Amino acid sequence: MRRDPLPSAWESLPAQQQPEWDAHPLHAAVLGRLRNAAPLVTHAEAATLGQGLAEVALGRARVVQAGDCAESFYESGAAHTAAKVAAIDALADRMAALAGQSVLRIGRIAGQYAKPRSAPVEVVDGVKLPVFRGHMVNQETVSELARRPDPRRMVWAYHASAEILSDLRARRRAAADGGRLGPWSSHEALVLDYEAGLVRHDPVSGRSLLGSTHFPWIGERTRQLDHAHVALLAAVGNPVGCKIGPSTDPDTLLGLCAALDPDRVPGRLTLIFRMGRDMVAGALPPLVRAVVSAGHPVVWMSDPMHGNTRRAAGGVKTRYLADLVAESREFRRVVEGAGRHVGGLHLEVAAEHVTECVGRHGDESALTERYRTLCDPRLTVEQASELIDATF
Ligand code: PEP
Ligand code: CO
């Protein structure tokens, strides 16, 4: 197999949200290391997941995609992976029981180490610091040194991902006997130095693979049609996702579908709608109509989390379960009203017991008890189960 990615379209295109490595002396060495590394996933694995997602697109299965907003490098060991997979299992089993269909399990796991951010700096205790961008880029600790982007973190991300992926591979073999599907890996394909460094081309089949994960997605902040992230995922054979927010117009969405699913292959493209509870009823129907009339056999997925983030009175970010329920139920009403199958849910869920989101009977004052997230507030498994119960 050819080890170097072919010179490709995305290299000359603009890209949002890229780390400023500030001419770090090891940047070039890291890029070389990634280009020569073994891919972390295989063509065959990506193809198997693509077939599973095709079943979802065709209405014969559903999918749960869940995990941390931002994974920690310090949670790549077996005990953490076991707890995270157990959380996904619990949610998938719940959805399977309610929906009466098999449920594909996908984690936000084994590579969710980079975060897009709305501002480049923040003020903490009166000190202005670069924001935390995920462990692939910097460290959340409140210090100038910790927040400095370090390209060596891309190599650490590779190794942390590899450790988790070998665990997931063993679990998939064991799960197949019990009839469960997955667990597969996914993350937002954000840092192009890392993602492009792990593209592998197979000259025999002529296909390219994004070797960093089974199921990459493009975030709401980097889905510009003529930019690098879309071109990169258009060029690889993995099943891919794209977040769709409330400001998306139907033509832009059709452009994304044409770029990412030109051959109209069921399971190739998952649209992950994250509209916000107040926007979904107005913004979703024209988007659904456009995709349906263009004939793209997409997976229709709801992310009820990212359009519903708020600041609690104490200043921390939180989400109210009632808002999430309202959005996911309206999503189901609109998609089914258009005669399409609701593929599933995309959720930020913690494996441990946290107090980051406000439950239907909870209040904000409890949020400080166990607020542990590196980025966005996550549901507990119990809260996520309630959301599934209320949706299906
Ligand atoms: C995320 O999934 O953590 C995220 C940043 O989502 P979005 O791109 O939808 O804002
Ligand atoms: Co998030």
Domains, number: 1
Q: Would you count the extended β strands for me? A: 14
Mean pLDDT: 96
Going by CATH, the architecture would be Alpha-Beta Barrel
The chain-level structural class is alpha/beta
The CATH class is Alpha Beta
Task: Estimate what percentage of residues fall within beta strands.
Answer: 15-25%
- Give the SSE order as H and E letters: HHEHEEEHHEHEEEHEHEHEEEHEH
Roughly what percent helix?
A: 25-40%
CATH superfamily (homologous) name: Aldolase class I
Stated plainly, the CATH topology is called TIM Barrel
Are there runs of 5+ residues with pLDDT below 50, and where? none
Q: How would you concisely characterize the structure shown here?
A:
Helix content is 37%, strand content 17%. The protein is of the alpha/beta class. The strands form four sheets. It has an eight-stranded parallel barrel, surrounded by six helices. Strands 3-4 form a two-stranded antiparallel ribbon.
3D architecture notes:
The chain has eleven helices and 14 strands. The strands form four sheets. The chain has an eight-stranded parallel barrel with strand order 1-2-5-8-9-10-11-14, surrounded by six helices. The longest helix has 27 residues, at 152-178. The termini are far apart. The model has no long low-confidence stretch (mean pLDDT 96). It has 392 residues and is an alpha/beta fold. It has a single domain (27-391), classed as TIM Barrel (Alpha-Beta Barrel), CATH 3.20.20. Helix 8 (250-260) crosses helix 9, helix 9 packs parallel to helix 10 and helix 10 runs parallel beside helix 11. The structure holds phosphoenolpyruvate (PEP) and cobalt (II) ion (CO).
